[in-house]
Amino acid sequence: MKKLQSDEAQTKTNSLVNEKLKSVDTKDMKVNDLWNTFKSAVRDSMKEACGTKKQGGPTRKLTAWWNEEIKEVIQTKKQLFKKWVKSKSEEDYIQ
């Protein structure tokens, strides 16, 4: 969005949108078709004029109570669970 704030990018985007929409015959188009045509023209023109930016991957939500002590306890719990799954013994289950 920052690139679109420049006058040069706005001018280029406007001219690209106008070029793309000039060749479209809108007489027999339905409203949804008109909207999709307009949307595609604007989106494609903005990509061409401003480029694209890759956003960060999926973000992990952090909790206020998570700390190293909790992390260690959870790791221990997982290890003990794996041990119990392998052995299926009551002794391992009670630990």
Can you describe what's shown?
This protein is mainly α. It folds into two domains: 3-50, no CATH class; 67-95. Helix content is 64%, strand content 0%. The protein has four helices and no strands. Helix 1 packs antiparallel against helix 2 (31-50). The protein is elongated. The model has no long low-confidence stretch (mean pLDDT 80).
Distance between the termini: 55 Å
Strand element count:
0
Oligomeric state of the chains in view: single chain
Total domains, how many?
2
Order of H and E elements: HHHH
Q: Which of globular, elongated, flat, extended, rod-shaped describes the shape?
A: elongated
Mean pLDDT: 80
What ranges have pLDDT less than 50 throughout 5 or more consecutive residues?
none
| Total count of helical runs of at least 4 residues | 4
Q: Classify the beta-strand content into a percent band.
A: under 5%
Portion of residues in helices?
A: 55-70%
Q: State the secondary-structure class.
A: mainly alpha
Q: How would you sum up the major sheet?
A: none
Radius of gyration: 28 Å
Quick tags:
single chain, elongated, 2 domains, mainly alpha, 64% helix, 95 residues
Question: Can you give me a brief rundown of this structure?
Answer:
Keywords: Endonuclease, Hydrolase, Nuclease. By secondary structure, the protein is mostly helical.
Show the helix and strand layout.
Elements: H1 7-22, H2 31-50, H3 68-87, H4 90-94
Helix pairs in contact: 1-2
